[in-house]
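Hi everyone, sorry if this is the wrong subforum. Our group has a chain we'd like a structural model of before ordering constructs, and none of us has done structure prediction before. Sequence below.
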Amino acid sequence: MTSSHLSAEEFRRQGRAAVDWVADYLERLESFPVQSQVAPGDVRARLPSSPPERGEPFATVLADLEEVILPGITHWQAPGFFGYFPANSSGPSIMGELVSAGLGVQGMSWSTSPACTELETHVLDWMVELLGLPGRFLSSGAGGGVIQDSASSATLCALLAARERAGGAGGVAGGPLVAYASVEAHSSVAKAVRIAGLEHLRLIEVDDSFALRPEALDAAMVADRRAGRRPFFVCATVGTTGSTALDPLAPIGEICQRHGAWLHVDGAMAGVAALDPSLRWIHDGLELADSYCTNPHKWMLVNFDCDCFWVADRTDLVAALSVLPEYLRNPASDAGEVIDYRDWQVPLGRRFRALKLWFVIRHYGASGLRAHVAGHVALAQELAGWVGADPRFELAAPVPLNLVCFRHVGGDEVDRALLSALNATGRFFLTHTELDGRHTIRLCIGSARTERRHVEACWALVQELAPPA
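Answer:
Right subforum, don't worry. Here is the predicted structure as tokens:
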């Protein structure tokens, strides 16, 4: 039998070609329309209907990558990408991903590759220090951290741990279980409740800054108790998707303690801002939380997927997610001497994600990461000032960090047309939300390659395309 596997030398040759292609792509980013211009079905129409019978040269694959795949890409790494939240990548992160793929580790247990587990534990402790998080999230105590694929998975795991602490899905000790979040919370909260098989999710009203109202949360929890239900889980948000609203953690935490509810804090994008000590006020009250997560794959130069999730006490999380068949038993686990991260997540299998986080932290250092975040926040504050100075526009929400929400005073239809015209130029890509029932344009500054000139050019184009007030 003739093997089709690459020899070491052939892998080097083709690997260099792939790395060159990626490097060239990153150099060319500003030459592409930021948002893909293809119509539905265009990419598939250019692909053969059947797979190849015989293997093809790697050069042919790269050619199709350029000609077929690239036109269907929306360029999240482009400096003019201001939509959604950032999805950063960087050279060190890409190289960490490459090494992870090359090692091909299946890190479900400590015994399957000790370095995979121990590096993850260590860099999660580093992240506690880098972000100034409460010490109760360190692995040296009852808590600790783990890398999930996304904040959605972190929310689900927190919910399952909270359900475990409450006595199970039925809430046998105090009636049906009830979860709470603000109306501005991420949709992953509702999805987690559905996956967990729970029936009751209360969405709590927000204040003028779109942050959860603690008094409304307390009233809802009191009403549920009187109705024979059991409040067991609250998800507070540090930086909502719509407007980066910051829920007040201290009063929410006190309410959760009073009602015996688990407090999970979702800091998916905005939590990374705490790299800058001057911005750590966003986490005031976090010491009252049972769990917390933030995503280096959004704003910390680490490519997807890398969500850092911490618990103050890992007991309930492990109890909720641990299933130990005989074929996974090993002396180290049986002795309780190690962490098995398969018990900290929903899937069994797991990749060596810690490598890319480790590569990024070591390459940029704490000072480089702080400068990255601080620069984007400063640009957003400047942009907010430009918006406020133009009588055709109004700020739709406070601007605490790197997201500016604004709208044209002419109303929703004018605003929609402006956003559509702006994105149609291909130079920039922005997205929208709805705040106070009104169409709102979101401009989030977070790309690794965004400079002041890109923000200036985007605002100039907005002004050029906008009609009079």
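For your construct planning: The mean pLDDT is 93. The chain has three domains: 8-31+36-73, 97-360, 367-465.
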